[in-house]
Each structure stands twice: as C-alpha cells, then as structure tokens.
Fold:
Amino acid sequence: MCGIAGLVGLESSRRPGSVRAMVSSLERRGPDAEGLEIWNGATLGHRRLAIFDLTEAGGQPMATRDGKVAVVFNGAIYNFRELRGELQSYHHCFRSNSDTEVLLHGYRQWGIAGLVSRLHGMFAFGLWDSDTGSLHLVRDRLGVKPLYYVQLANGSVGFASSARALRAAGLASELDADAVAEFLEFGYVTENRCIYRGVHKVLPAHIVSWSHGVIRHSQYWAPHTGNNFNAISFDDAVEQTENLLLKAVEMRLFADVPVGALLSGGVDSSLVCWAAARLGGNLTAYTISTPGDPADESDDAIKTAHALGIPHKVLPIHPEQIPGIDELTSAYGEPFACSSGLGMLQLSRAIKPEATVLLTGDGGDDVYLGYPEHKHLWMAQRIAAFIPPTFAKSWYGLRHAALRFSTLRRPAHFLDYATGGLAAFTAAHDGWPKYQREGLLGERLADVQLGQRGMRWSPENGRQVLTDMLVYDREGRFVSEYLTKVDGSTMHYAIEARSPFLDQNIWEFASALPYSVRLQGGRLKAVLRELARRHLGARVAYGRKRGFTIPVQRWLTGAWLDSTREAFRDSLLQQEGWIRSDAALKCLTEATKHKWAPLQLWYIYVLENWLRHEKTAAVTTEPEVKRKAFARAVAS
Structure:
C-alpha cells in the first residue's frame, strides 16, 4: 500500500523535479520510504508503506535485473505466492519476498494482459517497458485503489495516486465545470471526471497503455449484471458464500506487519471476524465506541468478540474528537463530502498505533443487496412486468398531483420506478434542481447540464430498474464514494484496508445470484444474514442496522455556524463564479430556524474549504509556481 507517480515522454532533465514534487505530496500514503529512478524516457517515483518484505529489497521503483522493465505499485496481490511459484517453474529468479516483484516477472512471462488476468487483489500500478517505450497503467477490478493520469500537449504522460499530486507537479490547475457540477450533485466526483480539467482516472478493471504519444484503453474484467444463474437453491448460495468468504479472508490475513479487523455490531464485519477466528488468524478486533450515542455498537461487538474468542479492543471516541473540515479537505485530493469520511478518519487515527493492516466488512451490502433501495427497486421491477404501456403514459400525467399528498408519495415513487426505470430513480434525488430553485449557482455553472439527469423515462426501463441501478451504482457511488472514503481516510493514516467482500470471486458469484435468492423472503442481504445466523446467532443476523453517523447538517446550523457564515461571506467560490454567496447565506439563515441544513449547503461548505486548501498550498509553496510555469511551457 503506497503512493505512486511517474512521468514519461519528456527529456530526462525535466522529469525528476516534477516526479519528486508528486512523490512528496504522497508522503502520508507511504511514510516508510521514498524512491525515485530515471530511465531514458521515463521517471518513476514511489512512497512506501511496507507490508510485505520490510527490507530494502522490497523498495520501489523496482526493476528487472537488466533494468529494462520497471514498476511502481500501490496495493496488495493476495495470490503473489502462487504466482511466484509458477514463475519460478519458468526459471524466473526473485530477489525479494514482496508481491511487487511478481509484476515484473509476470509481465515478462505473460505480457500485460496475461499478467493482469492472473492478479488477485487490489492494485494500481504503472509499468514501464524501455524496450518498447511503453507505459501501462492498471487499476484493479472494482477500483479499490485510485490512479490518475494526464496527457500533456506534447504527448507525454504524468500519473499519480491522487489528483493533488499531479497538481503539485504543475500538471493540473484549472477546475473542470462539469466535475464541479457533479460534486455539487453527489458530494463526490465520479470516475468519468476529475476536478481538474484534462486529468483522467484509470477506470476500474481497465488498462491504459501509452506508447510514443498514443494512448489505448482496454477493459479486462466485468462482473455479472443480472440474474445469470437459472437455478440455485438458497442453501447452496449460503454454503458457497461461506467457502468463498473463508478463502477471501485467508488471503487477506498474510502480512509482515500487525493485522487488525474492524468489528461493529453488524453482519458483515462480524462475519469477517468469524472467518478470521475460524482460520486461526492472529489478529485483534477493534471497535469504535461512541459513549452515550444511540448508534453505539460496542456492547454488541463485545459479545461477538467474546463468542468468537478473539482479542478485542474498544476504542472510545467522544464527539469533540471528530476530525474537522480541515482534515477532510486535506485527506482527499478531490472535494469529497461523504460525512462518514469524518468518522473513518477518526477510526483510522485511533487504530494506527495498533495495526497497519485492517480487515473491514465493506462491499457486502453492495453485492448481496443490503440497502433498502435494493428491495424497493426489486419490487418495482416485478410490478413493472404487469403494467401495460398505456398505463405508464397516463401515470406520467397524474404523478405530479399524487406527489402533493404525503400519504401518496411512497406508492407514487414505486410507480415512478416501475414506469420510468433508472431515470425515475435518479430524479428522486433532489440535488441539482435545488441549487437552481434557490439561485445558488454562479455564472460558470449556469449552463451546465448533468448527463445523469438526462435519462429517458420508459416502461421498458422499469422492467429492469434494479439491474440498471446496480450497474449505475457500482460505476458511481460504490467506487467514487464508498471505496474513495475508505482509501482516503485509511491512507491518510498509512493503514492498508482490506475487505474480503471486495474479493473478485465473491463478486463474480454473488452478482450472478438471482434477486430472489439475495432478497429471499424480502430480507435485505438474506444470504449473509443466514450465514451469520448459522455461525453467530440471531442477535447478529437480525440485529438493527446502525451506523456511525456524523450530523454535519446539524453542525452547520450549530457548532459550525460561525465558520460556515464566514466561509460564505468571504467566498472563493463566489469570486471565481461557481456559487452565489448571497443565495447561500439566505439559505443558511433559513436553515438555522430548523437547526438542520440541506445537504446542498454542506456540499458548498466542503467545496469552499477544499478550494481554500488548494489555493493556500499553491501560494505558500514556492516550487509550485515554478512547476506551473514548467507545465505551461510544456503545453505550449
């Protein structure tokens, strides 16, 4: 788990300073060591968080003995021992015990496509081949690890683990209006955009290959997108899930540093801890306690740890210890307004002295269908099969009247989903329209159109609304919010987070299960609940789903009211034409009457503070000015 950076295609005299600037900005992702190497045509840089082979032999950039192939790598290859053994049978000689070296020999043996198809893990890496003058940028199947790149006007390419690193090298500066609009709509920037104009993200399960100024993209994997099993019993699904989970946890227990596990009172993290205990894993479970908070789960976690017989520590955290907005903006290279990110930062800070690798339960809800909207859309999809097209047209004319009555809103939304499909589901989110109604948008956003709000309503789409939503969600909120939250907060404190439920074999299996199995008996994530019932009991299996809530919408009108007002009055967003301060202040004044601010004000507050953070970093770092001048010269 590390930070990576590189620049290819420029003459060698210009590359090291830029890559060194990127590497420096990634220090928190890899506090253990720094490396930078220069080739004829490429410079690669690395910040290391040592997990496997803690010696210098595991350092990066890492190259083959002849120096012609080199790599910088972020993540973990869980099957690297098996790949290493296979490569040794082909007479490859290894100099380290790290997972990184498998990438070099695997590339030599199988080529980039053959290598990537064999990798089992979470990863982002840049691999330079001097013989062919080519660079391969690769991201893992689900997008657990981030990877950004930018192509300059002269054809050269820079890449890094964060957009902020590219900016530190002067390779990015101007904000992208469409990305700003996406952030204001969702509270994050999707994988199809970056907050900086001209910067791109390597998409999950993609390879971006560069050679002599030409870039090519290829996708190497995709999960199932619907009901692909004709017949499988519920019991078989539970048993196969158990086997896959045990294998996934076993892979993730290997490390040359202390391994811990996050244990809440819920199903997913409890199952991960059960699997670790079943496998005899040497780890400690950690529970964040919020004394006096109704959402506190420490009592349930204590009972689970005691039943499993695993070491357990409760880390009490009080509300006044919640990280503030400054930590949120410094931890994420793009603006990021997921409020639970504050909680993850708090958790990571508390656990760092205890463990360097942390197992989590992330991903179980997403692939086994654990969110309320999964059940709602499944019901709507089944209803849609019986609705004639003529009814849908009639309903479109009646829906606005029905939505005026609170008692009719819930059934009205079901009919929307059944007759309109994914377009109706996305339209139910009142984001961008609220900015427009409240007059919050500045002139630079006045004409921006969000593609996510331009989908077509149709009865045909209603018949596959859950299927479409799962694809839309996996490509959007899942990777851009959920995975980004965990990576940004844990890496800010140099912790490697590993989630067994993000295992590719689990996703390939579970994403193909019929909805009737995953939601058997109308229960959310029924397969995992049954697995928990068998091994942990009814208390865990059927317990109330809770979460570590961060009441930022209340704080904006309370504890953070003065700072929010000041931010809106002296606003960089206003000065640069993104947001109208007078409208934001008016909306804030109205919100204080209810002691609860709309999410849109929270998003504006985060964006304002993030922009100030970036501007301050640019002004106070003298080399930044030089790097920006260098980038302009390259572009011209």
